[in-house]
Every structure is written in C-alpha cells, then in structure tokens.
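Figure 6 in text form: structure in, sequence out.
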C-alpha cells in the first residue's frame, strides 16, 4: 500500500482490497471450496458457473445467478454439507482511490536525489547512485556490499501489478512469473500499456546507464500527475504523456521489486501480476497467486495490499504458505488508523508499517497491536520504475518491500548455516526473543528493521532490532 512521488517516470500506489456489493449482479463471482468430485453437482444445484480455478484443486471461482441476493446465496451454499467454503469474491482497489488520508508530497523532496546523478554498477547491473546510496540504507543498518550478494539462493514472490522485465537493474534477477489478470505466463506490467507508451517512457532518460556512463538528465519538468504523485520527466516525454496519460497505478510492482532487490540483490524475484495498472484486482487472482508462489519455489511472499474484511480463502492460502515454510509479509496500510486489515493482521503474516527518516511512525501509516509487527523506512525511498527509469516513493507498500528483502537475507543465511529451511516460526521466535530488551509497542511494533542484525543471523531465528 502506498503514497508515492515519481521521479524519472510516474509512480504508483499501494493496494487495498475492498468489499463488493451485497446484491448479486450479472457475472458476480464467488469462491467455492469443495472436493473436486462434488464441485460439478454443487454448481448445478445452485446455478453456479465455473469461470476459473482457484490455485488448488479444491477451489474454483464461479459466477452465480443474478436473480438471487449474494448474502442469501452464500448462506444456502454454505449450508450444503458437501461445501467446505463459499464466499463472495471481493473486489480490489488502489489505496489512494479509497482513502482520504493521501496528501500531495512536494517535489522539493526530490532535490537531494536530483543532485546525485551518477550511474554505478550494482552487482553487475546499471543503477542510479541515488538508489544504491540512499539514506534509508543507513537507517536499516545495511552492511557493506559484499562479493556474494545478500539473499543468494532465495526467491521473493511479489504479488502486485507486475514488474518491468526490461529494467536494467532488475532483469538479471527476474523469474518469468505469471499474469493472473490474463491467465498467461509472464508477470510484466508493460502489458497494460501499448507499445507507443512504452517507447515514450524510455525517452525521459537521456543516457542509458552502465558502469561508465553518467545519466545526463538535461531538461526535465516536474509534473503533478494525481493527488499523491509528482513526476520528473524529460520535456519531450511530458509533452506526449499530457495527451496520453499512463494508467494511474502503473509501475507499483516494479517499484516494490526494486526495493526488495536493494536489500537482497542475490535473491530472484518472481513477479505475480494479480493487479491491473488501473489499481483493480479480484481476490481470486490474489489467492491463486499465493498458491502459485508456494508451488513454484518462493521463500518469501510480499503483499503490498490489504483488505478490510477477512477472507476465508485468503486465510487458507496463507496457511498453506505457512505450512510449506514460506514467509508472508504485508503492508499495514496508509490510513493513519488502528483498524485491522488483512492479510497484515493475520497471525502468521509479518505486518509492516512505515517510519520517517527520524524513526518516528509516518503520519500516514496504520498501526496497532493487532496489525503491526515491525516498521521500516517508507518515505522518500528511491527505487526502480518501468522504462529504465527511477522513482521516489512514500508508503507502507515500500516499507513492506524492504522487510521482504530482509526476510530473504535471513532465509539464505539460515539455509547456509543449518541446511534447514526457515519459516514464519523462526521469525516469530526471533522477534519474541528481543522483547526482554526492547518491549513491543503498538506504534512501532518490535522496532525498526535492522539488516546488519539479519546478516549475522544464526539458528535462533530471523532477527529484528529496535534502534
């Protein structure tokens, strides 16, 4: 979830799953859990039509009859002894579209990054110096870069809007992934824009970054794109995009992936596209993505989204991940609220809030004992953006990404030292073990992410540490 500013390309938002309407509409979707041998008979009995699989053989996604209210249909189907679960499929929306807490961030916040234009090599891939030397790295106690990149041998699944597979800083670590919005292999968010728009995006970076070049940005313009986004774009790009704007939430997944990569450059990233560039998604696609991540080798799942109503099927999917030793990390949301949101509030999920550069809770971050596990920087982070571009971002989506990267660091360390896979119990035990030194509180949880502590990780668990 997130509030953002864009630099050298538009930036996007964080994701909030929202409840659907109670009255059944034509094509209203439901998630049915039942023994596969009973599914056809159940669907026939209640007028359900299967439209997709649900990530496991026991789950299918169906439409229901428009002549019946959703609540009534759900009650009837659930009463059938053959049915293990049946729920209305919730819709999805980007958090900025659903909250009144979003505020425009001044373009002046970009000044320090714009004064740092050098290009560097980041483990063999070109990157902007402002990305690899940003202040947040010192705040999370990032250790010096080593020959063997942190997180090597692990996989982090990013359930989001997709990731740009052509970004120079990311393409060496990206797995093919899957696009659940189109039911096809590949998790590219470039599929949500046409080729002419992709070409326009590339125009705003004058120099192609490599080990020996410096990006000469030349003339650029600061453009207000929406209530929470400022873009710094080349003048020619601005002229074109003014007549052909990008989808409002385009780029979110690439930005999240960039921050995972920053903390765990040795980890592979699995892009799972469950959200479209307009910020919408279906819960069924999110659930399918969780199962896909577990079944295809993910060690960590980053979920930079939330919903305000608990879903039985999402809980089942996350429990499945937990049983298979996959660590789930979720953003807590940007509503400055203590309300429970899911999946961050689930007991086997690490819920991550945002702090400022001074270590205080961000004014937009949610918090509370039933929601927050720990916090990480979430203001003014520099990260990747589609079109070989870069962005500065604000929000708990990006705090979550830093923690997901750090989880991969811990998993790699545990696997190396103990030849025994890590799981959520390891992280939970480790966070509980610091309570005697730094007691948990409802505002910052177990404290601020500490990567250096994770890099010293041993069999006692994945460690977090308050400053």
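Output sequence:
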């Amino acid at each position: 979830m997130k509030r953002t500013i864009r630099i050298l390309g538009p930036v996007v938002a964080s994701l909030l799953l929202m409840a659907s309407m109670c009255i059944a509409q034509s094509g209203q979707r439901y998630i049915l859990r039942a023994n596969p041998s009973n599914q056809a008979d159940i669907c026939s009995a209640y007028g359900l039509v299967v439209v997709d699989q649900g990530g496991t053989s026991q789950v299918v996604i169906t439409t229901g009859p428009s002549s019946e209210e959703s609540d009534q249909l759900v009650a009837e189907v659930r009463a059938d002894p053959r049915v293990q679960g049946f729920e209305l499929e919730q819709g999805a929306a980007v958090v900025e579209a659903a909250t009144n807490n979003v505020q425009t961030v001044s373009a002046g916040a970009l000044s320090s990054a714009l004064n740092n234009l050098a290009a560097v090599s980041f483990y063999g891939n070109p990157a902007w110096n402002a990305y690899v030397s940003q202040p947040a790295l010192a705040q999370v106690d990032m250790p010096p870069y080593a020959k063997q990149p942190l997180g090597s041998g692990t996989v982090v699944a990013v359930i989001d809007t997709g990731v740009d597979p052509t970004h120079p800083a990311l393409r060496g670590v990206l797995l093919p992934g899957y696009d659940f919005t189109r039911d096809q292999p590949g998790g590219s968010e470039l599929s949500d824009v046409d080729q002419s728009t992709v070409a326009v995006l590339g125009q705003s970076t004058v120099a192609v970054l490599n080990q020996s070049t410096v990006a000469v940005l030349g003339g650029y313009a600061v453009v207000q794109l929406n209530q929470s986004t400022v873009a710094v774009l080349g003048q020619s790009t601005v002229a074109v995009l003014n007549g052909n704007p990008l989808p409002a939430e385009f780029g979110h997944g690439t930005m999240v992936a960039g921050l995972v990569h920053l903390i765990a450059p040795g980890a592979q990233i699995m892009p799972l596209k469950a959200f479209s560039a307009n910020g919408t998604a279906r819960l069924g696609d999110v659930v399918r993505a969780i199962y896909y991540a577990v079944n295809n080798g993910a060690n960590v799942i980053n979920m930079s989204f939330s919903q305000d109503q608990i879903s039985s099927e999402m809980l089942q999917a996350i429990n499945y991940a937990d049983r298979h030793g996959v660590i789930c990390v979720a953003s807590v949301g940007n509503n400055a609220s203590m309300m429970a949101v899911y999946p961050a509030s689930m007991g086997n999920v690490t819920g991550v809030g945002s702090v400022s550069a001074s270590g205080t809770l961000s004014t937009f971050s949610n918090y509370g004992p039933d929601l927050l596990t720990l916090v990480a920087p979430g203001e003014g982070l520099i990260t990747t953006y589609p079109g070989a571009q870069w962005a500065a971002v604000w929000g708990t989506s990006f705090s979550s990404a830093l923690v997901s990267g750090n989880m991969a660091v811990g998993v790699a360390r545990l696997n190396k030292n103990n030849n025994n896979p890590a799981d959520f119990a390891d992280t939970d035990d480790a966070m509980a073990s610091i309570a005697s030194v730094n007691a948990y509180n409802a505002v910052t949880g177990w404290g601020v992410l500490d990567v250096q502590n994770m890099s010293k990780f041993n069999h006692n668990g994945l460690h977090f540490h308050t400053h």
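Caption detail: Residues 396-418 form the longest helix (23 residues).
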